[in-house]
Amino acid sequence: MKLRATLIGFTAILMWSFLALFTAASGRMPPFQLSAVCFAIGSIPGLVVLTLNPARLALLKQPAKVWITGIAGLFGYHFLYFTALRNAPAVEAGLVAYLWPLLIVVGSALLPGERLRWYHVAGALAGLCGTFLIVGRNGVEFDGAYAIGYGAAFLCAFTWSGYSLLTRRFDAVSTDVVTGFCLATAILSFVCHLGLETTVWPATGFEWVAIAGLGLFPVGAAFYAWDYGVKNGDIQILGAASYAAPLLSTLILVLFGFAEPSWRIALACVLVTGGAVLAAQDMFRRKVQPPVAAE
Predict the structure, then answer these.
(1) Helix 64-87 / helix 90-97 crossing angle, nearest 10 deg
(2) In whole angstroms, what is the distance from residue 104 CA to residue 165 CA?
(3) Please, are residues 31 and 174 in contact by the beta-carbon 8 Å criterion?
(4) H, E, C per residue of 188-221
(5) Structure letter (DSSP) for residue 295
(6) CB within 8 A of 13, min separation 6: which ones?
(7) Residue 202 reports pLDDT greater than 90
(8) Which of 148, 226, 234, 283 has the most CB atoms within 10 Å of its CB?
(9) How much is the pTM?
(10) What's the rounded Cα separation, in Å, for the pair 35 and 21?
(11) Distances (CA, A) of 241 to 14, 115, 279, 289
């Protein structure tokens, strides 16, 4: 059960790996408008399930703390991420924001029944180093003039790691509530779009297809899979393995001709893969039971 849930959680990481490709192909729609449209699309699979099985609507009746955590996690993360990108260089903001997998691994020590070991932290740090090679390939220079952006990026990392860890505590809450989280995030993103952006619609059918792909997978099904994974799987392994997302994203961009292969990518592969295997050694290790002595 735990292995299956962990693997389902890992599918979210795989889907997030296509985020850059779909975003690059989606045209020039501004961030909050894109977020509103994609989260609206992402809620459709959940709405279909609820429509076909109305009895599941009762599962949406949850305490206020569940709704606050979910909406703050999904909308709060994206609001802070976009704020960081508006107030700091994308590379530095992205690196700070991508502290969330490490924060999940370290923060898991606070969860009931979890035990943080050195190899969990070491695996997450190796993944962080691999991410640094990928994201900071053209150099990194932190400037105090962008303190607001860096602060928003750190809050972004803290928000998503906090959401993931708190979700673990709501293990009895059905993943159906993610449908409501997506709808609320779509509405709040739309409000931000009206107040902060100029509306831009896709110019071609190909861009619409890319946006539909974003909504159905990286900004849709991925959140359902992540919710199930962190509630029922190994959250420490998922945290460390999350560093595979920027690496896989870069490899996908290389495959589709949007980026060039390099030694940095090769070394990042070693660091991220090695870190994930190190963090997951509890899953791979076979415990040999001592033979029962004959009476």
Answers:
(1) 150
(2) 7
(3) no
(4) HHHHHHHHHCCCCCCCCHHHHHHHHHHHHHHHHH
(5) -
(6) 238, 241, 242, 244, 245, 248
(7) yes
(8) 226
(9) 0.87
(10) 16
(11) 10, 17, 8, 29
